[in-house]
Automatic annotation (TrEMBL):
Highest rank taxon of the organism: Bacteria
Carboxymuconolactone decarboxylase-like domain mapped to chain residues: 64-144
Pfam family, one: CMD
GO molecular function, one term: peroxiredoxin activity
PANTHER family assigned to the protein according to its UniProt record, in alphabetical order: 4-CARBOXYMUCONOLACTONE DECARBOXYLASE FAMILY PROTEIN, CARBOXYMUCONOLACTONE DECARBOXYLASE-LIKE DOMAIN-CONTAINING PROTEIN
Protein name in UniProt: Carboxymuconolactone decarboxylase
Length: 163
């Protein structure tokens, strides 16, 4: 069986068992807002109601098109979905950033996770899971970044978790 046939067959099966709603229905939260409005609402929530975070304002100055794509797609279409609560979304994102080794984003989103009520113990669990999914080197790098964030937030370190 050739790869192209297999690809089309699998795609067809996925299409056949998928719900019969349009992509707009899936991506739109219950509110009727533009993609940009939803993105700005998410950013305001991430900043704790302080408006656009400074790193995003800088992105708008340096790379306006990238900022626009981030605002409308990443935040307005994806981040604004209502399936996951904000804390869960942050914890999942942290695992992805740790796996990729993208510590600037890891640190920013770890702060957002704390803002949304994640506990230091929950953030530590992300590090422990990273050892399994992405290896000890990535987990160790993320652990160092998390320690910095804890110190900046006056969170007692080391954090001990339930075993």
């Amino acid at each position: 069986m050739n790869k192209q046939f297999l690809t089309f067959t699998v795609a067809g099966l996925i299409f056949m068992v998928s719900p019969t709603r349009s992509p707009e229905t899936v991506l739109q939260p219950s509110e009727t807002m533009t993609r940009q409005d939803r993105g700005e609402k998410v950013l305001n929530s991430l900043s704790g109601g302080k408006g656009l975070p400074p790193h995003f304002v800088q992105l708008q100055k340096d790379f306006p098109e990238l900022a626009d794509m981030t605002l409308k797609y990443s935040l307005g279409d994806i981040w604004a979905r209502e399936v996951l609560d904000n804390k869960t979304r942050q914890l999942i994102s942290l695992a992805g950033f740790a796996a990729q080794g993208t510590m600037p984003q890891f640190k920013v989103h770890a702060q957002y996770a704390l803002n949304y009520g994640a506990t230091p113990e929950e953030l530590m669990e992300v590090i422990y899971i990273t050892t399994v999914t992405s290896g000890f080197p990535r987990a160790l790098i993320a652990a160092g970044t998390l320690k910095e964030l804890f110190q900046e937030n006056n969170i007692k370190f080391p954090v001990t978790s339930q075993k």
